[in-house]
């Protein structure tokens, strides 16, 4: 649901607004019409009642007091249905009234013209009142006055009794309802970009087919980093639960690197992450203030192919280094022969054979796995070309292991030795490799004489994969992340500390 609510909720709110406006208009019109009708009709009626009472001789006889005047006033009130009939003298002193507390008080006549000898009809104290003067026999002097009145009706009183009013109100209601519906329809059409319901349905169906049909993963996020949509490919690549939609990225079981990329804390194109044995490439595209869209691609096959190419390249580099080394030795032997230094040639060849034989013998005696032994022998030539000495820890020992563990050992050892060579940066130094076979695991340790690993990135080089920060410190971030992946996949671990240089220790359960 968007920040402004669902379309159904908006329709409900606007319909309620239209109905409320309609009811208010009906109420205002009803009250106005009822008031006008009451003032017109009731004004005539109370005037007629007042004139009838004023015309009676008993009212005009000044000899009659309050007792004689009460009877005609009450009779007129009862038969006419008005609320009150009051008789007062020319000084507005009340002589007859249906309200006992009003007797012998002064009658309030407002701006009535009755004292000037003319009848008057108007509103007074919330009632429609008629004042009629009673003149003397000569007809020129007001001797008494008669007031008849009815209280104004309550809200909507008399509205339903008038068919004309009902028809007018229904007409107004129809106009307001139609106008409100047209405005609401226009608003909805603007919000749906002019699409009809069947077009919206087709668009949603096409979107779903597109999202779930492509091979790339797509994740939609709102400004609060909650997942709004996710297709099948993204769910599989990130191993998301079924209820991932609507949940925050921070609440999901994702590593820190992936969370940083999904939330935008880490930026950049084609960012590489590792997730459950898969190498993924993430790209995040912000969408104004509505959130972001993240696309994912599985690069596991490409990375596997790259690793195989790297292995081939390393083998080629090793062969090239060996060929270069052999070429140099042959040139040296050739030069000694031309100089006739035959004894020196025999000594030189003996020393070369002895050094190579010693390294092969040492590796062969300590490492029983052929793949690992071949890797160490090959890496020795590569290290020698760079002026780096490669040696084994004195107590190293490894028997032949199963193929899966042998493959992982080659991956871990190869990447650690390459990482150490890169850390030395072409400077002379040494690398020490140790391999120990324990009861339930194989422990690998590679140390070098380089500058070591900055303490603040000791964990980052494993967790974040390839980053600029890691690369700046000479670390092969992705290679180290792959080492950790290989170890963790077997239930092991890898860690690094400094001791005269970087010391990487990997543990791989058997």
UniProtKB/TrEMBL annotation:
Q: How does it sit in the membrane?
A: Multi-pass membrane protein
Q: What is its main location?
A: membrane
Q: Which positions fall inside the Histidine kinase domain?
A: 409-510
A single GO CC term for this protein reads:
plasma membrane
Q: Which GO terms describe its molecular function?
A: ATP binding; phosphorelay sensor kinase activity
Query: Which EC class is this protein assigned?
Result: transferase
Q: By its UniProt entry, which InterPro entries does this protein fall under? A: 2C_sensor_his_kinase, HATPase_C_sf, HATPase_dom, His_kinase_dom, PAS, PAS-like_dom_sf, sCache_3, Sensor-like_sf
Q: Which PANTHER family match?
A: SENSOR PROTEIN CREC (PTHR44936), SENSOR PROTEIN RSTB (PTHR44936:SF10)
Q: What is this protein called?
A: histidine kinase
């Amino acid at each position: 649901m968007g920040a402004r609510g669902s379309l159904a909720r908006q329709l409900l709110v606007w319909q309620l607004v239209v109905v409320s406006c309609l009811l208010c208009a009906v109420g205002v019109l009803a009250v106005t019409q009822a008031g006008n009708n009451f003032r017109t009709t009731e004004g005539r009626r109370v005037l007629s009642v007042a004139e009838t009472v004023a015309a009676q001789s008993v009212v005009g006889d000044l000899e009659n007091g309050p007792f004689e005047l009460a009877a005609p006033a009450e009779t007129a009130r009862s038969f006419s249905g008005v609320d009150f009939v009051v008789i007062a003298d020319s000084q507005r002193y009340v002589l007859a009234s249906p309200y006992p507390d009003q007797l012998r008080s002064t009658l309030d006549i407002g701006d009535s013209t009755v004292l000037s000898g003319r009848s008057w009809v108007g509103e007074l104290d919330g009632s429609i009142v008629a004042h009629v003067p009673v003149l003397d026999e000569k007809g020129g002097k007001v001797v008494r006055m008669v007031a008849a009145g009815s209280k104004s009706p309550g809200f909507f009183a008399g509205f339903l009794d008038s068919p004309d009013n009902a028809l007018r109100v229904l007409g107004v209601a129809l106009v307001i309802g139609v106008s409100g519906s047209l405005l609401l329809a226009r608003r909805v059409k603007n919000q749906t970009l002019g699409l009809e319901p069947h077009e919206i349905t087709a668009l949603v169906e096409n979107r779903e087919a597109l999202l779930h049909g492509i091979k790339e993963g797509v994740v939609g996020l709102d400004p609060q980093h909650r997942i709004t949509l996710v297709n099948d490919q993204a769910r599989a690549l990130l191993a998301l639960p079924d209820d991932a939609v609507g949940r925050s990225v921070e609440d999901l079981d994702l590593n820190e690197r992936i969370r940083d990329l999904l939330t935008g804390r880490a930026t950049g194109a084609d960012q590489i992450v590792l997730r459950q044995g898969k190498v993924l490439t993430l790209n995040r595209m912000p969408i104004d203030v509505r959130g972001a869209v993240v696309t994912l691609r599985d690069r596991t096959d490409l990375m596997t192919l790259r690793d195989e190419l790297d292995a081939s390249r390393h083998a080629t580099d090793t062969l090239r280094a060996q060929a270069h080394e052999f070429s140099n030795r042959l040139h040296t032997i050739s030069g000694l022969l031309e100089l006739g230094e035959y004894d020196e040639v025999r000594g030189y060849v003996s020393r070369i054979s002895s050094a190579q034989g010693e390294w092969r013998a040492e590796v062969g005696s300590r490492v029983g796995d052929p793949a690992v032994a071949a890797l160490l022998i090959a890496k020795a030539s590569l290290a020698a070309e760079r002026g780096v000495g490669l040696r084994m820890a004195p107590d190293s020992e490894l028997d032949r292991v199963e193929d899966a563990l042998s493959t992982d050992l080659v991956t871990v050892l190869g990447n650690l030795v390459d990482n150490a060579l890169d850390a030395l940066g072409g400077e002379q130094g040494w690398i020490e490799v140790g391999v120990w076979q324990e009861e339930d695991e194989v422990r690998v340790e590679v140390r070098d004489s380089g500058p070591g690993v900055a303490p603040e990135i000791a964990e980052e080089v494993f967790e974040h994969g390839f980053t600029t920060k890691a690369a700046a410190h000479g670390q092969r971030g992705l290679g180290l992340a792959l080492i950790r992946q290989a170890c963790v996949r077997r239930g092991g671990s890898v860690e690094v500390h400094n001791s005269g240089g970087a010391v990487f220790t990997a543990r791989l359960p058997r």
